[in-house]
Amino acid sequence: MSAELDHLVINTRFDTDAAAELFAALGFTLTPRGYHSLGSINHLIVFEQGYLELIGLPSGTDRLRQEVLESPVGIDGLVLACDDPIATHERLVRQGFAAQPVQRFSRPVEVDGVEQEARFATVRLPGEFAAGRVYFCHHETPELVWRREWLGHANGVSGIARLTVVSAEPEESARRYARLGGFDGDFQLDIVDAQALVARFGVLAWMGVQPPERFAAISLRCADPSLLAQRASALGLAHGPTPAGVVVSIPAFATLLEFVQ
Length: 261
Description:
- By secondary structure, this protein is α/β, with parallel strands linked by helices.
- 20% of the residues lie in helices and 39% in strands.
- The longest helix has 10 residues, at 16-25.
- It is globular.
């Protein structure tokens, strides 16, 4: 059984404006703000394969998406693609996962001055993975997400290479994630212990007291990692070399971004 990345989620809670401004300054193209029917807001950073989602919560309303409110700020979502959410739900239940029923929701998208509705169906696995939210997503309207005008980024980033999970028991964590299937394509799920994380990212790996398992870093492919280091310097963001490229620390959103060729 194989798995395919759909997207990764960074929870910005009530600071979505600041997050969007920061990621734009790093050279990413962001989609216009989306408003989910579930009670959350977002911006996407879209690539040919997969995307990053900056998710947050609206102000001035009591209708807030509870799972986002209860999740920590930072990298909090690993989302896998699926073609048939009902069949995916049935398979996960057979495997022993406590999968929630298929959830359908939407958000308006304006295309060429006309409002359309982007629709999604998800199968969530709450509590199954200690690092954060893990779920499957089916895009009923992919043409409203992967639009040509959103795919180019001034910083030269072209895709998601890896999600690094740090775990106090990496072998046990790896066994749990393996039940989801092995990843096809160019995306890698890397599960390491704290010592290996520090060996890769140095002092920037330290984000204060953290839980035993967490989504620690996102690695992104780009043409020239040094250009991202320059942008980070201009923004006052700590950064440093890694064996594969450059890592940038975004402490306001408890996120490490590694840029690799």
